[in-house]
Amino acid sequence: MCALEVAPAIGTADGRGRLILRRPVKADATAIAELANDIGVAGMIARMPHPYGLADAEAFLARCEALDPRTDAVFAIEHRQFGVIGMLGFRQHQPRRPELGYWLGRPFWGRGYATEAATAALDWARRDWGKAVVWAGHFADNRASAQVLVKAGFLYTGDVELQDCLARGEKVPSRKMVWLA
Ligand SMILES: CC(C)(COP(=O)(O)OP(=O)(O)OC[C@H]1O[C@@H](n2cnc3c(N)ncnc32)[C@H](O)[C@@H]1OP(=O)(O)O)[C@@H](O)C(=O)NCCC(=O)NCCS
């Protein structure tokens, strides 16, 4: 598949097929703003403001449109029944270092959705996007994300870096991980 294809839709392949990862559109702004306006979400992400309003979601979606599809891919995680439940993306903040990030709205935690979405996205990154290495990091106090990344096949590099968390307004230890195709 062409590496320039912009974030095509991915169905999760666990047999139940309950999630679709697709390119975000402007109409997603309301759902994103509602779900992201939660310190339990923003406090686990480096650059998400809190509180988080519609203007933040619209600005985020505008930034997504400007991304280079060779290096960055952002998906809305859509549940077939509930609609948009969160976001997932590969962002290249450093050259040749695509980094996986994701969040789900609180009502959708604890149902295996993040593991399912991350696994499908990594399959796509390897098979269709041609990536052999993906990086990730989670704040040391984020047990849920640690579990998601381990289950998706990431390994700890041993590096722990202090990373700014916009919503907490402080630096937080972040444990670095790597995934090899
Ligand atoms: C992290 C997050 C995406 C996890 O999503 P999720 O869909 O609830 O995760 P899953 O249901 O796939 O759970 C994955 C594993 O984590 C475990 N887990 C979930 N919440 C946990 C918690 N609070 N503490 C410890 N383990 C937890 C689950 O039990 C599961 O493991 P298991 O299958 O062996 O039981 C979600 O909590 C979230 O969006 N949090 C806020 C934003 C965030 O942290 N983003 C990631 C930044 S690195």
The dominant shape is: globular
Look at the structure and name the CATH superfamily. Answer: Gcn5-related N-acetyltransferase (GNAT)
Spatial order of strands in the largest sheet: 1-2-3-4-5
Distance separating the two termini: 17 Å
User: Residue ranges: pLDDT <50 for 5 or more in a row?
Assistant: 1-6
Helix content: 25-40%
Bound molecules: coenzyme A
Domain count: 1
Kindly estimate the percentage of residues that lie in beta strands according to DSSP.
Answer: 25-35%
Keywords: Transferase
GO molecular function, one term: acyltransferase activity, transferring groups other than amino-acyl groups
Domain N-acetyltransferase: 19-181
Protein name: Acetyltransferase, GNAT family
Describe this structure in words.
Residues 19-181 form the N-acetyltransferase domain. This is Acetyltransferase, GNAT family. One of its GO terms (molecular function) is acyltransferase activity, transferring groups other than amino-acyl groups. Keywords: Transferase. InterPro entries: Acyl_CoA_acyltransferase, GNAT_dom, N-acetyltransferase. The protein is α+β, with helices and mostly antiparallel strands and 181 residues long. It has one domain: 3-Layer(aba) Sandwich (Aminopeptidase), CATH 3.40.630. It has five helices and eight strands, in the order ββαααβββαβαββ. It has helices at residues 29-36, 39-42, 54-65, 113-127, 143-151; strands spanning 10-11, 19-22, 73-79, 83-94, 97-104, 133-139, 155-165, 170-180. A five-stranded antiparallel beta sheet has the order 1-2-3-4-5, with helices on both faces. The chain has a three-stranded antiparallel beta sheet with strand order 6-8-7, with helices on one face. Helix 1 (29-36) packs across helix 3 and helix 4 (113-127) crosses helix 5 (143-151). 36% of the residues are buried. Residues 1-6 have low confidence and may be disordered. Bound molecules: coenzyme A (COA). Coenzyme A is lined by residues 41, 44-45, 102-104, 109-115, 138, 142-145, 147-148, 151.
